[in-house]
Amino acid sequence: MFFLFSYSQGARYAFESTITSKRRFPVHDPDQSNEILARTLTHAVKHAGKPRHQIAREAGIHRETLHRVMRGDRPIAVDEASRILLACGASPHATITLAIAGQEQLACEWMQSAMGEFLESFLSVLPLHLDRTLGRRIPDVRPRWANGTSQLVARMLAKHIDDFAERDIGAGLDR
Question: Which residues of 148-162 are buried (b: 16+ CB within 10 A; e: fewer)?
Answer without folding.
Answer: eeeeeeeeeeeeeee
